[in-house]
Structures are given as C-alpha cells and as structure tokens.
Amino acid sequence: MHNPQVLIVDDSKTIRSVICSQLRKHSIDVTEAMDGIQGLNFTRKNHYDLVITDVTMPGIDGYQLCTEIKNNPQTQSTPVIILSSNEKHEHIERGFEVGAAAYITKNKAYKDLFPYIKEVLDRSKLLRDRLVLVVDDSKYIVKVVASGLIAAGFKVITASDGETAYGIAKETTPDLILSDINMPKMDGIKFCEKVQNNPQLSHIPFVIMSSGGDRRTMRELLHKGASAFLVKPFNIDQLVITAEKLLSDHFQIILQQREIFKKERTLLMGSITSLIQALEARDSYTKGHSDTVAKLSVKIAEKLTMPSNDVERIEFAARLHDLGKIGIRDDVLLKNGPLTDEEFSVIKQHPVHGAEILGPIPSMEDIIPAVLHHHEKMNGRGYPHGLTGYEIPLWAKIISVADVYDALTANRPYKKAFTHQTAMEFIDDKKTEELCPDCVKAFQEVMKEYQPKLLN
C-alpha cells in the first residue's frame, strides 16, 4: 500500500520543517513548496492526497492557490487544508468559500492539525473511486450534483429516469444512489422499491432528492429502505457530507446489520408460514383460507389507494390473521357442528393468541393491531375488545371484509357454502352495522373487476 502523498505550501521553512517532521512520523510522504506558484506547479505535475497551504505568501496567496486547485478538473477532488495566523471570521469564511476542507489557525496547529489531516486523508481514501449514480430528469440538477460530487472526489454516472437507472445499477453496482422522485418511465419510489428487492443491490445506500417535503412520502420511502432524504434546493456541501456519512465504515456496518435483519425476517416469515400451513393441515376446511384472505385484502387496500408499503404489510397481516388458532384445542377448532357458547368463547381468544405470538417480534409490531382486531364490528359487538367505528384499525377492517367473504363461501360439515351472489348480498346488508362501509364499497368494486379471476 502506498503512503499518502501530502504537499506543504508555506514560505516559512520553519513551519514546513515542523509539519513535515510530524507527518513523516506517521508514514506520510511529504513534498515542500516555498510559495503558492511553486505549489500550484507541483499540483499540476503530481498527484497529492492532500495540500496544506499558508495564506499569506509571495506570488499567489493560499486562497488563490485553493481556487486554482478546485477549478482544475485534474485536481478539483484534492482536499486542501488552509493553515493561517489569521483568526478573523471573514478570513475563515473565505477559506471555506474557495473550497477548503478545513481552516486551522497556526496557534492551534500543534493540537488540531494532525487530527484534521487524518480525518481528511481517511475521507479521501473512503471516497476515492466510489461510484455514485445520480438520477434526475432535470439536466440542470444532474449537472450541478454531478459536478459537486466529482469535485469532492467521487466518480459519477447519471440517468434521467428510474427505468434506465435500474438497468445501470444492475450493470455497475454503484456505491451510492441519489434519485429524484417524480420522473418519467419509472419514478423514484418504484426505483427505490426495485433496488431494495434486488439482493445484489439492496445494500446500496439510496438517497431521495425531492422538491416536495411530504412527510408521508418520506416515511414510506424510508420504510422501503431509503437511507436519507434531501429536499431541493439543497447545498452541495450538504449533499457531499451526507454522501460521506452514508459511505462511512459505521454506516456500512449498519447496512450489513439491516441486510441480516431482512434475512432474519424472511426466515421468520417462513417459520410463521409453516405454522399457518400446520394449522390448515389440522383443519382441512380452512386450507387456503389465509391465502385467499390475503389476496382479497391486497385488492381492497389497492382499491382504497393505500401506499404500496401499507398494502405489503396488510398482506402480511392477512396471511397471519388466524395464526392464533394454533393455540385452540382440537375438540373446539375441529368440531363438526355449531359451537356452544363456551366453545365460542374459546375460539374468540384466537386473535389474542395471534397477537401474543407476534408480540416479541419487533418487525411485526405494525401488523399486530390488524391481527388482534380483525373480528371487531362497527357496532361494538365484535371481539376481543368490543371496539366501535373509528376505534378499529383500518387494516383490521379490510381483513374483516375479506375474512367474512371467504368464510361464507367455504363449505363446512354443518353449513353449506353461500353462493357468490348470496355472500355479496350478506356483506352489503352488514355494511355500517358490522363492516366498514368504505371497505365494503372497495370490496364490491374489486369483485366486479376480479371475481372470476379470484375465484379461479
């Protein structure tokens, strides 16, 4: 591994010697320049990982040197630390305006300089050869963002829509993705979702750039796996700092942990699905019930124009809505006939059992209310808690409608299955009193469109 290359530009030989001595102790190779012009010439002929410059020097000063370095495409990614005797705020401000990575006063150099040097070199090493995919249908935004990132040391590749960007991502596997939301062909939400669902891409930090500040959209994207959200117009320095943070070792560890969490959740869902299958194997009359309820619940949720992430979670909840029946004894669950009041009171505990099974699992927290309350009724005569109207979670109301339909149209030893038409009439009669009217209306629209396909 090559040692870091640092250029020291200062007209004081003493200052140069002191800094050089300190850096060489840390295996850093140092080149000395006695003024700004010599320093500028060195940067044009050689590559440096860092330039440390004084301000007041013969020829050109440190501000102009920094400006020249940042205006040259060959050197614009080279970080510059300004080392000066001047502590005035306006001088420090000017240092950052010309592109300095840090401004250190000489009276604090002994304590602060090397930590800053280490930080800048570590950051430079982190960013070197890192590829960022910038996706926006605005050519101006793409140009500004790409220029800022290149100046900071990143490599950049661009796309104008999510569909093209997804193809590029699969071919190049960028280290970071920056994407707008509203774009042709495929928007940023769908693009983010596709990236997160691809095992080869899901580890890539995904940053959303948007001119809107819709909190619901932000929450939805963060839930889908977006790492950060930048609201336009944003400062390029803010963007670079965000990119550096996302690519830091610490954040990479977090991403690895998230990947492990996702795999564990997949395994967990497999285990729970096995429980559902075991339950349905106990009771042949409920075989496929959870799948049908999940399928109908998804269609109802989509008809209600719910966010795609909510639809996905409703599907989970619907598949697990009867999980608690695994805790119901066979003589009740498998009884070939109507239940007594005592037996029905046992059955009414299955939503509670389901919630208790899911309770210790953090990733299932949002679906527990749907599992717990899918047998509540609008008039308060449901179970287990007798909730009414708006007290009942929407996800539970949706699942309830789907559950009732599938239960009505299933054959049981003690009950002949309803026809589709009879079941639809029954559900229509129960809207407002027992079932959510909005959910019933959405369900009726779904069945008009999908009933033949769903029944098959």
Automatic annotation (TrEMBL):
Pfam family, one: Response_reg
Keyword annotations of the record: Hydrolase, Phosphoprotein
GO MF terms held by the record: hydrolase activity
Domain Response regulatory: 5-121, 131-247
Residues bearing PTM 4-aspartylphosphate: D54, D180
InterPro entries in the record: CheY-like_superfamily, Cyclic_di-GMP/3'3'-cGAMP_PDE, HD/PDEase_dom, HD_GYP_dom, Sig_transdc_resp-reg_receiver
GO annotation, biological process: phosphorelay signal transduction system
All copies of domain HD-GYP, residue ranges: 264-456
PANTHER family (alphabetical): CYCLIC DI-GMP PHOSPHODIESTERASE TM_0186-RELATED, LIPOPROTEIN
Name recorded for this polypeptide: Response regulator receiver modulated metal dependent phosphohydrolase
Organism in which the protein naturally occurs: Maridesulfovibrio hydrothermalis AM13 = DSM 14728
